[in-house]
Amino acid sequence: MIPIKVATTLAATFVALTAACAGDPPHHGGEAEGRVLVRFPDEMRVHTLASMRDHLATLEQINAALAASEYDRAADLAEKRLGMTSLEVHDAAHLAGFMPQGMQQIGSGMHRAASRFAIEAQNASLSNDPKPALRALGEVMQQCVACHATYRLQ
């Protein structure tokens, strides 16, 4: 069972990421909040935003799997939809050429962190201790938050 504090933190992060994916400005006031504007061709922008919404949906599904102690399911979701093996599905190599280097690094860090989470989730299925997996999932989400706090697609 996931402690209520962890579940609350995950829920708050999901809300923040949803706002970031929708293009809402942060709720600390101000005009353009200082994020770097990244211009993608229209078709690629639409594809990228859909991909980010899929990442968010995947995080929700991972959270549900962890809450149900379905650690192998959480690992499978993470690796196939967020981890290093997902790069081809998301056409990451093609998109990277339109991203600033920092955005590329954060994105690569997110995919690597997701693969590390998948390993920790698999370990949790053997140890029945989800804490290392939860810490690893937090590292995935840190990358998402860092990217959305720094960059904005147009």
Quickly count the helices.
6
Q: What amount of the residues lies in strands?
A: under 5%
Low-confidence regions: 6-31
- Total of domains: 1
What's the alpha carbon Rg, rounded to whole Å? 16 Å
Instruction: Quote the distance from N terminus to C terminus.
Output: 40 Å
What is the helix content? 55-70%
Arithmetic mean of pLDDT: 84
Protein architecture, described:
The protein is mostly helical and 154 residues long. The protein has one domain. Helix content is 69%, strand content 4%. It has 6 helices and 2 strands. Strands 1-2 form a two-stranded parallel ribbon. α2 runs antiparallel to α3 and α5 packs antiparallel against α6. The radius of gyration is 16 Å and the shape is elongated. The relative contact order is 0.18.
Question: What is this structure, in a nutshell?
Answer:
With 154 residues, the protein is mainly α. Helix content is 69%, strand content 4%.
Keywords:
single chain, 154 residues, mainly alpha, two-stranded parallel sheet
Fold blueprint:
Blueprint: H1 4-21, E1 36-38, H2 42-67, H3 71-81, H4 92-96, H5 101-127, H6 131-150, E2 151-153
Parallel strand pairs: 1-2
Helix pairs in contact: 1-2, 1-6, 2-3, 3-5, 5-6
